[in-house]
Amino acid sequence: LIIFFNINSDKIVDVEDSATATKSAKDLFEAGILLPESRLFGSLIGLISQKTLTSIEEMGLKEMTEIQYQTIIPLLAGSDILGAAKTGSGKTLAFLIPAIEALYKKKFRPRNGTGVIIISPTRELALQIYGVLRDLMKNHTKSFGLIMGGADRNTEAFKLQKGINILVSTPGRLMDHLRGTKSFNTNELFMLIIDEADRIMEIGFEEDMNEIISLLPHKRQTVMFSATQTKNVQDLAKISLNHDPMYIGVDDDKSAPTVDSLKQGFIIVPADKRLLMLYTFIKKNNGKKIMIFFSSCNSVQFHSELF
After folding, report:
1. 149-163 tens-digit pLDDT
2. 254: pLDDT confidence band, cut at 50, 70 and 90?
3. Three-state SS for 99?
4. What angle do CA 163, 71, 102 make, to 5 degrees?
5. How many Å separate Cα 88 from the centre of its chain?
6. Nearest to 304 by CA among 288, 273, 287, 282
7. Greatest C-alpha distance within the chain
8. 175 pLDDT band (50/70/90 cuts)?
9. Alpha-carbon gap, residue 222 to 239, rounded angstroms
10. Which pLDDT value is given to residue 263?
């Protein structure tokens, strides 16, 4: 058994580059958008609801990462964003906080249908986003949900019929429901978030994404994050973003796809010791976010019941 692990340190990620920050500050100034003087989440008092601030505090977060600092305010102001940030930079919070605030200010209810759609390339990433969303929504009453391949479609359709205000999805399953679930109401959709756009296109969802864009209301705010700016990503940006999106890139001078504080390693374990090692590793990192991949569904079921 070889265990690969990624552990994100608790240290606030400092990815600020002077040239990039100057360029971003200039763009924001020209757009009439002023960033907070402090990177503390407390500096957002009056800009976001107390309910969201309370959730952030309960999550143990105090200081914004660079991508959060540069992105949250422009999104609250209604700008379209094309963002570039490495894995582990905190971009999930960067788009979730403004999305939740928009729902809150618009007083969205389940009867309004879906106001925000977040598209993620894989089930694993969708689950990760949904977990952060669930923590942020603890003090809110808006409805939120997750649809993805491999889940029960009828159950998803029933929840969509009841009304999911903020929806996390994978491209294929979203396309499936847009085509075949008549009760899926997106008439009042005002925000579309495309996360890891480069991976979405690499996997082969280009046609699905083009159709999804065409089926959703055109008058909306769009957010797109991509680690790399490939031709396919640029083409997707052209049809999904407005004609003057704001570009925010906090890692333009960095080639590595992950932040420097992300530790990676592996352990070679004899077959008869692997279960004990896995159990010990999980217990030692209790309270941290851990994703474990197994070779089969049966193995997933076995270990979930065991642990």
Report:
1. 999 999 999 999 999
2. low
3. helix
4. 30
5. 11
6. 282
7. 63
8. very high
9. 11
10. 76
The residues with which 266 forms a beta bridge, in sequence order, are 4
Residues in the chain: 307
Please name the residue that has the structure tokens 């080639």: 255
The CA-CA-CA angle for residues 71, 104, 129, to 5°, reads 55
Tokens of 11: 């240290």
Closest alpha carbon to 278 in 256, 247, 299: 299
Q: What is the CATH code of the structural domain delimited by 26-249? A: 3.40.50.300
Tokens 């070889």, located at residue: 2
Which residue has tokens 């402090």? Answer: 38
> 261 pLDDT exceeds 70?
no
pLDDT at 3: 44
Q: For residue 17, report the phi and psi dihedrals to the nearest 5 degrees.
A: -120, 135
Q: Where are the domains of the chain?
A: 26-249, 271-306
Residue 278 one-letter amino acid: L
Q: Give CA–CA dist 296/298, Å, rounded.
A: 5
Average pLDDT, the chain: 85
Contact (Cβ atoms closer than 8 angstroms) between residue 242 and residue 222: yes
* Three-state SS at 32: coil
CB-count exposure of residue 295 (10 Å: 0-12, 13-18, 19+): exposed
What pTM does this model have? 0.74
Q: What Rg, from alpha-carbon coordinates, does the chain have?
A: 20
C-alpha separations of 253 from 19, 97, 122 in Å: 9, 27, 27
**142: pLDDT strictly greater than 90:** yes
pLDDT of 189 higher than 90: yes
Through-space distance between the first and last CA atoms of the chain, rounded to whole angstroms: 18
| Residue from 178, 105, 169 nearest 142 by CA | 105
